[in-house]
Predict the 3D structure of the following.
Amino acid sequence: MAIQNKIRKAQASDAHVVPEIMLQAMGDIIFRFIQKEDRKEAIHFLTQFFKQKGNLYSYENTFVAIDDSGNIAGSLTGYDGDQFVELRRPILDHIQEQYNNTMILEAETAGDEFYIDSIAVAPIARGKGIGTELLHYAIAHARQCGFKKVGLLVDLKNPNAQKLYERIGFKLGHKMPFAGGEYYHMYIQLD
């Protein structure tokens, strides 16, 4: 099922669905933020930030894929990598205040790119090309906005995701630690 032209900018009102989809891609990291493996608390955490402006997980930075029935089938969150530190600040402040967590994560992006923070597809919608369509949409968005590169991280333990990104044209960059795991920074040049 192609969903081309059924991708749109997220809205704050999508908070009833999108954070649960996002959690699929970010579970381990969010659990480290809240210092427990509590799915309900993690969804609450993501929902709170999704509905607000000016942070990494905001609806402002998210695109959603809509299936033929009008349901949200996937999401992709991405932003200007040069704004990473500024967008991360509200998250770090909150986890320190709410969870007494003073962790400082490595930077996911060095900037100078449109950075794809997370991409996830609802379990019922997997295998239908939605992730690929979201990636193509994000690449086109980045190109239209004048970015010269799109980047993302892929877990070394997730070779299937790495193969998907390579099929789309992403190249392996440097290996780096992040949030207790090992990742490759992958990128695609747009010029």
